[in-house]
Amino acid sequence: MSVFGFVALGYEGELVRVEVDVRPGIPGMEIVGLPSGAVREARERIRIAWKNTGFKFPQERTLVNLSPADLPKTGAGFDLPMALALLEATGQVPTVPSYLALGELALDGSLRRVAGILPALAKASELGIKRALLPSACQEEAEALSGIEFISAPNLSELVENLKSQCWRTTRGMGVLERRRLDVDAQLGNWRTRPGLNEVLAVAAAGGHSVLLYGPPGGGKTVAARNLRVLTPPLEPDEAWEVARLKSLRGEENHYYPEVPFREPHHAANLAGLVGGGRSWEPGEASLAHRGILFLDEAPQFAPSFLQTLREPLEDGWLRLARAGRQVSYPARFQLVMTANACPCGQAGRTKGVCLCGAQTIRRYWDRLGGALIDRVDIRIFLNAEAESAPLDLQEMKKTLVRLENALERRRSRKSQEKNAWRDWREVLDSTPLLTSQKNLWKETLHREDWSSRGGVSLIRMARTLADLDDRDQIRDEDLLRAISFRKPAGEQYWQN
Ligand SMILES: [Zn+2]
Q1: At what angle do helices 42-53 and 156-164 cross, to 10 degrees?
Q2: Domain end: 370, 387, 412, which one?
Q3: 385 and 260: one domain?
Q4: Residue 215 C-alpha to ligand 1 middle, in angstroms?
Q5: Predicted confidence band at 254 (pLDDT cuts at 50, 70, 90)?
Q6: Residue 336 pLDDT grade (very low, low, confident, very high; cuts 50, 70, 90)
């Protein structure tokens, strides 16, 4: 027999074999194999839970070994596998071939839900272990996978009864289901927007391009950023699976049909909450925004150390964390959406109104974001508080939705299913090369604006998205020109001072 627990190490994780040795000696229970405080405390929880449920605790020397020994074990999820391994070693439950067990034991013997059920079951299944014992509260989550034989119960006594009578059931394998687009009429019906703004947001939504909305307060930056979520196409099944898995690791309620993630952390949140880590190595907001939107309202208020951490995932879609000599990674392929006032007092960029901040102060303010981060932002939109706004034209919006469908269909028909913002730009150009005149326009622009090669790549990707929205194979001059205007907004570019 073998009982396995699970320890998450970033997005992946490992199975942990729970071995029990009971031999004559002074009564006591020792746990070895790098248990964390929470795992060591399991000893007390198991002892009392057993007493309260009528099982006999061994009156001998008991050793619990968690193998592999060099892997730190964290969390209360080891309560159940340790309790079951002990019951088996003392002959109180029948021996079952290899199975996975996860769950926290309360003092009255009831079983609580723990984080990480989906990755644990996926890993076990990958290694050929297709049996699991779980708290009832985890059953719904387990049903996402198919072909897992499981026994679940709300408490330890019932779980053991079900195990004795071999009440195995098999998961249905609901998978993760595709969600429909949010109801645009209901969500955007009251939106007072600017001419052309939702068209730019549609480009951002279709290609997953990162966005900076800036300008004086009252220009509708925050509302525009939140509305981007409504335009964003629903997750594809593979993406939904990744999102469900991350939510499982964080212990958030899981569903078979996750919505497009939209994470809006507060600037005062701690770094572990934002990027991940902490005691049990949970994913942070940046990873939970994977395949969705990471929205930083008033971005310069966030700690520069956090903002600079985002550069790496914006490059390759992964967040790497180093703690205690180990490195763990989480996927973090998010669309960064930021808002910022033009200056600390908020008056800069107003037609009427006087900003008293001074050039130095404005510079320091924008330095918090940093040129390197802004360089990774494809679309910069200046919103002037005094410019006219009008209710969203729902007829226009319907046309925009058709264009978004075009882009989605084109994406689905490609070999690489990534959004344009994440595509290899050489692959983009291989499939539809630029004309010589377009190449010249592109090169001249980079030279004139002193844009980095990253800026050049961003132009190609945005131009591709514009062509996709129109359902065209060929990138046209106008696509390139519009891409340039997205990167170089009409308002002053304060970060270049
Ligand atoms: Zn000011």
Answers
A1: 70
A2: 412
A3: yes
A4: 11
A5: low
A6: very high
